Each structure stands twice: as structure tokens, then as C-alpha cells.
Amino acid sequence: PEKDVVTCNGKEARIETREPVYFLINKPTGYLCTTALFEKRKKVMDLLPMEDVMHDRLCIVGRLDKNSEGLVLVTNDGDLANKMMHPSYQKEKEYTVHVRGSITEEAITELREGVDIVVDEEPYHTAPAKVFLKEVDKISKLAIILGEGKKRQIRLMCDAVGYPVTYLRRIRIGSLRLDELPRGEYRKLSKKEYTQLRQETL
Fold first, then answer.
1. Residue 194 dihedral angles phi and psi, to the nearest 5°
2. Is 65 considered catalytic here?
3. Choice among 56, 65, 79, 159 that is catalytic
């Protein structure tokens, strides 16, 4: 559109361009990560201003399943979104995870070294992960940092070592942090955050 002219029935077609927007959202449990406007169930897009949802081609970066909560990024910047979602974007994603049972050191070692899971009916061996034990009891509390992001990966990893996830919250993607943003709330990225994110995806 910067150099070509497109016409339809003899009339020039103009593209309305809008400023890029970047929303950091603290997704609550029970919400779907979908941009489908006609989805009747609760979705992340319901948490944003209607004028932005209706007029922008928004996409969700860093999807979480319905039963998980925490940081997701929503933007109409397709270039940035594609780079962040590409497999070559190996920025860390950090999670607070609770699992059922008193997890053993052997299980933690397995998680750190990589385990065999099945993703969309395809076998997959996970890359090494950073796993830190915060508390062990009937419910064990972990901090897990991944450099990859397969569908439902942490839940599948913990199932593979025999400790099902009871709570999962993402608190960081690369340099973006959830910090004290309340559940169900959003905020726009600061200029500093945007600049750093751009540098990370070069």
C-alpha cells in the first residue's frame, strides 16, 4: 500500500491504518484464548475495550488453556506477533506451578532434563527446562521456566512424571512481566517494554 495503487470498479481502494496496540492481560481461569468474536464462552477479548476488539485485527501471543491463568499479550502488530510465535523465538516463559503430591527430586530431575509427551497425537521429547522447588507438601509448588511452548506442555510434562498440575500461572514472557496486574485486568505496554521486546525479536 505504500507504493501500489489498487482500484475496484475504477475507484481507488484505500486502506485505513491504525496505530499498533499492545495489551498485556492477566488472563483469569475459565477464559479462552481466542479471537473469535462470536464465541459465546468467556474469552480474553472480553477483557479489552470494545472499540479495540471491533476495529483491530488482534491476535493473541502466548496462548494459555482455559484452566490456566496469567500473562498473555494481545496486539494488532502482525509482524511482532509472528516473530514471537515463531519456533526460532526461544525467549523464556516463566510459570508458577502447583502439582498434586509431594514431588520427588527424581521427578524434578526428569523435568529438568526433558520428558516424553504427546502433543496433538505426535510424540515429542521436551527440551531441558529450569525447574525450582519452592515448597513440598500434599501440594508441591514449583517455578518452571521454558524456552519452548508446546500446547499444554507443562501439564503434559507433569503428568508424564506422575504429578498432575492443580494450578498454573504464567508470570513472564521474555522481558515482559505480569507483576502486580490484577486478574482480569489489562494494561498497555510502556515504550520501554515495547522497545525491549522489539530488540529481543530482531
1. -60, -45
2. yes
3. 65
